[in-house]
Specification:
The chain has 486 residues and is an alpha/beta fold. It is built from 13 helices and 21 strands. InterPro entries: MlrC, MlrC_C, MlrC_N. This is M81 family metallopeptidase.
């Protein structure tokens, strides 16, 4: 019988945001609660195998945000380690992480956590992980983790496939008695996810080249991380890890993949038209059609922004069509518990005046005074807390008690707002998630300000390794330095 435990802490941490993250921002699953993350093994049965006992310990996941407070990280880390100690000995451990967590005072938090786990489980236990392709991977992490795999799709439609693959590789190596080789290389490039989607070129073709590694003997997995660029850390960059049984093959495939990505760096661009806020609004209004989507990208919480810069709402209300109600719009969303409370105290049908935004991120945001009618109240949203819809002119602003991204149509329609009935829907995210992309009659990306804005060279980087594209140009990394852990 194999004894395999599961656990981890997952968040994308923007170091440019003044907002820190704490335990209250994480959804923490323990024991049997973790089953929902692994539907490919119902009742902890992986493909009918009866020779495995799974020990789900703790998995903590938060939407992207600022750096995690040290005490909160320590509390989650210690609970996870205590849970692992209680089920020793272990043959394997599935390390369920994202890959871009920053802890106040600690860079490379995933490597710190992996080292602590390794000290508990010992050198013989095989550790595997299935990561987000926006993680920042270091040699220190590669030293502690035996098996790597990462998403190959952005948006991440393959997240469950990746978790399943990580578990399958772990079992394959346990069955075969394999201790894998890992080859790692850094690519000195930092691009936002909005420019590196695999749904369009060159991202689609770059990631397709990983399949050439899949069929090479001696290779178990080839993974390419575009990295998480809104973190001012020395580890921030694109990386490659190839895991296998043949050191030469792993090394050669790592160099090949790194060169493919490096050579494509100039070709990456936004998936849709990208303009300033006013241009996006004007172009959307000129289309005279329903279900146009705009991504308000510079402060979006799915990349780690605080989410309460209200500038785009102000620009919508400055446009005569949306200010008058001749055209209607949905804005999703604005986290402001004080404004939500004003709406709840007044009730549906009341007219209120609220000061929106500028509370979570006062560095990048100023409050915006808005008057409107409370048209809906929706308490106890799992992620967003109490919700309210405030209509000002033709603009329906969704207010939330906690930061909440809107990724699927149901999140709108359950609030009585259907994008196909409104000229414009503005979402505080980056690239559109698949369901929103399919619903959009046309889409734009607004290049707005904030902690996660798209103008990467203008971000206040101080600690990334230089040279680093696009902060620097006109350099060649030469032969990529490959580090091998055998």
């Amino acid at each position: 019988m194999y004894r395999i435990a599961i656990g981890g802490i997952a968040i994308e941490s923007c170091t440019f945001s003044p907002l820190t993250s704490g335990v209250e921002d994480f959804l923490i699953l323990r024991g049997q609660e973790m089953q929902v993350r692994y539907p490919f093994m119902p009742e902890w049965n992986f493909h009918g195998r009866e020779d495995i006992t799974w020990f789900p310990i703790l998995q903590a996941k938060a939407i992207p945000g600022g750096s995690v407070r040290a005490a909160d990280y320590a509390a989650m880390k210690n609970e996870l380690l205590d849970g692992i100690r209680a089920v020793l000995p272990l043959d394997g451990f599935y390390f369920d992480i994202h890959g871009a967590m920053n802890v106040v005072g600690t860079d490379d938090a995933e490597a710190d956590l992996a080292r602590a786990i390794r000290e508990v489980v010992g050198p013989e236990c095989l550790i595997t992980t299935g990561m987000d392709l926006h993680g920042n991977v270091t040699p220190e992490l590669v030293k502690e983790v035996d098996l790597f795999t990462a998403y190959r799709e952005a948006p991440h439609i393959d997240y469950l496939d990746t978790r399943e693959k990580a578990c399958r590789l772990l079992l394959q190596c346990l069955d075969d008695g394999t201790r894998p080789v890992r080859a790692w290389a850094r690519i000195p490039v930092g691009l936002p996810g909005e420019r590196t989607s695999t749904f369009v070129e060159p991202g689609r073709s770059v990631y397709q080249t990983l399949k050439l590694s899949d069929i090479r003997p001696g290779i178990l997995d080839a993974s390419l991380w575009v990295g998480y660029v809104w973190a001012d850390e020395p580890r921030t960059s694109a990386t490659v890890v190839v895991t296998g049984t043949d050191e030469t093959a792993c090394r050669e495939e790592t160099v090949r993949i790194a060169r493919v990505y490096w050579d494509a760096r100039y070709d990456f661009d936004f998936c849709v038209e990208a303009h300033d806020a006013d241009t996006c609004i004007a172009k959307a209004a000129a289309l005279k059609q329903k279900a146009v989507f705009i991504s308000d990208s510079g402060d979006n919480p799915t990349a780690g922004g605080a989410g309460d810069i209200p500038t785009f709402i102000g620009r919508l209300l400055a446009h005569p069509d949306f200010a008058s109600g001749a055209a209607t719009a949905i804005y999703a969303s604005m986290p402001d518990p004080a404004a939500v409370r004003v709406c709840y105290d007044a009730g549906v049908g009341a007219y209120v005046k609220v000061s929106l935004g500028g509370k979570l991120d006062p560095v990048h945001a100023r409050p915006l005074e808005v008057e409107g009618e409370v048209v809906l109240l929706s308490p106890d949203d799992v992620v967003g807390g109490d919700l309210a819809v405030l209509r000002a002119g033709g603009v329906n602003v969704i207010l939330t008690s906690r930061r909440k991204p809107f990724h699927v149509i149901h999140e709108f329609t359950r609030l009585g707002l259907d994008p196909k009935e409104h000229e414009l829907t503005v979402v505080k995210i980056g690239y559109l998630e698949p369901e929103l992309r399919d619903a959009a009659s046309h889409a734009f990306l607004a290049l707005t300000t904030g902690a996660v804005n798209q103008d990467i060279p203008k971000l206040p980087f101080k600690r990334v390794r230089r040279p680093f594209y696009p902060l620097d140009d006109g350099f060649d990394p030469g032969d990529f330095e490959v580090q091998v852990v055998a």
